[in-house]
Amino acid sequence: MGWRQFLKAQASGIVACDFFTVETLRLKMLYVLFFIELGTRRVRLGGVTDHPNGAWIVQRSREFSMAAGEDHARFRYLIHDRDKKFSGPFDEVFLADGAKVIRTPVQATNANANAERWIRTVRNECLDSILIWGRRHLTRVLQEFIDHYNRERPHRSLDLRSPLQDDSKVGSQIDMRSVRRRDRLGGLLHEYYLDEAAT
Fold it and tell me: Domains of the chain by range and CATH?
């Protein structure tokens, strides 16, 4: 079985994680850790820091593991690259949960394509249009974008549904007079929803 076939067959049980960097207005480099569930495309923010040391990363992995458990999200595989920040204790958190850790080959970005694609999405749709002041500002912006991404943004791989979409209203007749727009991130993102009071 090839890598693509493995990912497709096991998607519901795979979580990928990665880091990306964001430079602030004060020319300080911030590191963002995130997790993405391949089956649902749900993204979870691991954390933002200017010093991603081993203790910080292990604590973020524990927090992710607990949050996933509370949501009854079970996964069997964790994919990440060979970055030195992903130390042995980081992997041990997931091994203790019964997940198998898979490290991608060296310089093979396509092996973690879903994570790399999400980085491109968050940059194109959000971070390239906002000046980031610092760690707390970046955390707030990412939390807002991730909430939009998980609840409102359509995904081709999910038949134009969002990862956390409420399917109870799918296919029902919509009175266009009850559709309202909500702006997020200062008008950068627009979401449309049904105003129950207007119907």
Answer: 3-165 (3.30.420.10), 167-199 (no CATH)
Q: Residue 142 — left, alpha, or beta (φ > 0 → left; ψ -120 to 50 → alpha)?
A: alpha
Q: What is the pTM of this model?
A: 0.80
Q: 41 — alpha (psi -120 to 50), left (phi > 0) or beta?
A: left
Q: Is the pLDDT of residue 43 over 90?
A: yes
Q: Do residues 56 and 33 touch, judged by C-beta distance below 8 A?
A: no
- The phi-psi region of residue 187 (left if phi > 0; otherwise alpha if psi is between -120 and 50; otherwise beta) is left
When pLDDT is cut at 50, 70 and 90, the band that residue 195 belongs to is confident
- Give how far Cα 80 sits from Cα of 23, 131, 184, Å: 23, 29, 31
What are the residues facing 44 on neighbouring strands? 35
**How would you classify residue 185: left for phi > 0, otherwise alpha for psi between -120 and 50, otherwise beta?**
left
- From CA 105, how far away is CA 191, in angstroms rounded? 39
Q: In a 3-state reduction of DSSP, which class is residue 2?
A: coil
- Asked if residues 162 and 151 have their Cβ atoms less than 8 Å apart, the reply is yes
Mean per-residue pLDDT, 36-65 = 92
> Is the CB of residue 16 less than 8 Å from the CB of residue 115?
yes
Q: Which two tokens stand for residue 151?
A: 């609840």
